[in-house]
Amino acid sequence: MNEFSLKYGCNPNQKPARVYMSDGGCLPFQVLNGRPGYINFMDALNSWQLVSELKEALGLPAAASFKHVSPAGAAVGLPLSDVLKKIYFVEGRELSPLASAYARARGSDRMSSYGDWIALSDTCDAATAKLISVEVSDGVIAPDYEPEALEILSRKKKGGYNIIKIDPSYVPEKLERKQVFGITFEQGRNDVKIDENLLKNIVTENMSFPESAKRDLILSLITLKYTQSNSVCYAKDGQTIGVGAGQQSRVHCTRLAGDKADNWHLRQHPKVLSLPFKDGIARPDRDNAIDVYISRTPEDVIGEGAWQNFFSVRPEPFSEAEKRAWLDSVSDVSLGSDAFFPFGDNIVRASRSGVRYVAEAGGSVRDDDVIDTCNRFGIAMAFTGLRLFHH
Questions:
Q1: 265 part of the active site
Q2: What is the pLDDT of residues 236-258, one digit of tens each?
Q3: Is 291 helix (H, G, I), strand (E, B) or coil?
Q4: Would the pLDDT of 304 be above 80?
Q5: Up-side HSE of residue 181: CA atoms within 13 Å toward CB?
Q6: CB-based contacts of 56: which residues, under 8 Å, 6+ apart?
Q7: Is the bond preceding 230 in cis, omega lying within 30 degrees of 0?
Q8: The one catalytic residue among 33, 46, 162, 230
Q9: Lesser CB count within 10 Å: N end or C end of the chain?
Q10: Which of 31, 33, 17, 23 is nearest to 2 (CA)?
Q11: How many CB atoms are located within 10 Å of the residue 220 CB?
């Protein structure tokens, strides 16, 4: 088929709506189940590009969790520690490499991933489908589905779950177009290849980029390529841990993503791991309670009556001093930026979240200030010479 009709566009009042091939050719996907909407397709096609590029660059199965055309999380299929299995709610589950990638992508920012769109670089297996089946999401795109996986997913949302099969051999034309206010924009597609070659121009006194940092920086840059700008991405252990999308100020982006990265680390604190949840508390409610416990003052969290909704006993307060001590022990986090850092304040904020490796475009009139700030914190930084704005 070369056209797929939609109920409406971005909003219910925007009708008619459709996706189609302007050259009359066939659409490079099949809708196997459900009826995806306009934003679903935007998420699906952007997220598919992200995971397919991650797979090509790093040679590992990849997954992404998208919300409103930006990734909440992205990851490759590395094994999970016992702590990560616990905070991702996958203890005792079968974890194929693809399932591990999905658990990591979803676990990067579980609050933002609620009701997400999922992208998988490889054929969806039953282990991955079982993980997806218990999470709240809108749909999934993958190059194929094992029969058991398709059966599992087709039962989700009372049979209405959106499942898209994408042709992995599809390559779009070099020019892309879109309309704004009735005016057509045309540009060359951003098909730049992101690999280790972008990390060769190390401009700091610390010039050490271990292989794990290179992997995480490549992951962060590919993620940024499909994140609404301005954007920065914190990464560790083969996954994003904080994505800050669409901020007008880069330092606000760095703070937003840094707060998400801090939250990811604090979820692994013994106090959070041992929270006394009542039996039967749903995953989204657990995520909300954990976020509140981590993010707010003890008085906000355990005020009279509030804790009884989630916990069997009143949890101990989690003091700011305890949080800071835990975060001060964090290290080896990587940070990518979709453009240059204009001031050293971004580096100062990043250092508070354990950042030790940075990749950014370079080219600011204040590059020297940014380099000096990195040197002050012992951070290694590479100038990629590549801007990755996405709008």
A1: no
A2: 999 999 999 999 999 999 999 99
A3: helix
A4: no
A5: 0
A6: none
A7: yes
A8: 230
A9: C
A10: 23
A11: 34
Enumerate domains of the chain plus CATH numbers. 3-171 (3.40.140.20), 190-266+327-383 (3.40.140.20), 270-317 (no CATH)
Q: Strands 239-245, 62-67: parallel, antiparallel or unpaired by DSSP?
A: unpaired
Once rounded to an integer, what is the mean pLDDT over residues 153-174? 96
Question: Under DSSP, is residue 106 helix (H, G, I), strand (E, B) or coil?
Answer: helix
DSSP strand pairing (231-236 vs 380-383): unpaired
Distance CA 51, CA 254 (A): 23
**Any catalytic annotation for residue 15?**
no
Which ranges of 108-227 would DSSP assign to H, the alpha helix? 110-113, 126-133, 147-154, 211-225
Looking at the whole model, is its pTM more than 0.85? yes
The residue annotated as part of the active site, out of 55, 67, 214, 260, is: 67
The Cα 203–Cα 385 span in angstroms is 12
Helix (H) or strand (E) holding 158: none
CA angle, residues 17, 21, 25, in degrees to nearest 5: 145
Q: Which has the closest alpha carbon to 222: 75, 106, 39?
A: 75
For 305, the token pair is 């009556």
Band of pLDDT at residue 335, cut at 50, 70 and 90: very high
Reading the block at residue 48, the tokens are 């598919």
Across 325-390, the runs of DSSP E, i.e. the strands, are 333-337, 355-360, 380-383
**Is 252 an annotated catalytic residue?**
no
Percentage of the residues of the chain whose pLDDT score is greater than 90: 90
CB atoms within 10 A of CB 377: 16
How big is the CA angle at 71 (ends 70 and 73), to the nearest 5 degrees?
165
Is 102 a residue whose pLDDT tops 80?
yes
Residue 269 a catalytic site member? no
